[in-house]
User: What shape does this take?
Amino acid sequence: MLDLIGDDASGYLSAPAERSRWQDTWTMQRTRREAMALLARTYGSWTRTLCGALATAVLLGGAYLLGQGVAGLVDDGGLVAVALMVAAVLLLLAGLAGAGYVLFTGTRVVGALRAWSSARSRDGGPGLRLLFTPAVVVRLVLAVVLLAACVTLVLVRTGVLLAETEETAGGALWQWFAAAVAAGSALAALSGAVRTGLALRRRPGQTATGGWQQTPAQPAHGGPTGYAPTGQWAPQPVHDAPDPGVAGAEPGAFPDAAAGQGGGSAVVAPEEAEEEWAATRMVSDLQPAPVPLRVRLSDGQDVAADGLTLIGRSPAGRNGEQVSALLAVTDSAVSKTHLAVRMAEGRAWVTDRASTNGTLLVRDGAQQSLTPWQEASLAPGDRLLLGGMTLQVEPVDVQ
Assistant: This one.
């Protein structure tokens, strides 16, 4: 069957839950932008537009043949009428199957896009430029034409507009059926575009490069200016690197963090910004581990001591992602890129990459499902269950 989502976008169909704090702010912000851009391109592809138009045309053709078949059965009931009825039923079934598949996959893509937009919604979206591709423009024009044809047919059949129509039972049947098909296809295309646009739109105060502007935190109870009140999460980094895949991004331009406190703007190289924020972790992450950790698969493979290791049946990193090692397994219940393990200074973190069957973390006898794209820290004695495979977290003996 034709895949209208694709392997790249399917990995982003599960968005992380809304959280006020992300353990890896830079990585999660970059993942969010990448996911929204890829899902938007998937929704606005020519393949989806052509499949939807073809399914609608097949349904309209089936409706016309159905009307002709009914008219033939009423007149003489010959073999031609029976053949027309059989052909009409086959076309209608094929059209319904195609339209259902297009609608189902489109709903999944739009739902995932809206979920990624809701997570950290104040960051805004990449803008409506990603939505109005030539394929989507053609889709919207066809939707308007179909909706106008539907309204015209209804007005004609109800007698509001005076026009010559087929007064036979078959003629009335196929015209009403055609109006229903046209209305359903048009409303599906228009509603999908509106929902996608709401997810992609920029929020008030968001810059054209995909970031968002913020004001310095107000002092709490006379505290020093520039510090957030106790218990609140610190302001998000304003010199966030724009995603090259997002339209409107201007590589190399990053607002200076001091601009919110009266300083001038500065230009920071993308490599420097990424290196800085990739090295910045939560305070809890900076606590030294009692002993170094080692992560080992049940088939005997060891996770790389430092860096990012991807595990799956055919693991592959995303564009621009720095991967230290790829561990391939043969378990059919494991996704192509199922899990990511990050090792640094003897500590370990794990992220489920929106796998099909999920990942279980077993700690002190209790099981917990990992939230897709949400990084979790590992401790000695933890076990990870993915498919029929097990990852064991062990302390490394230090002599």
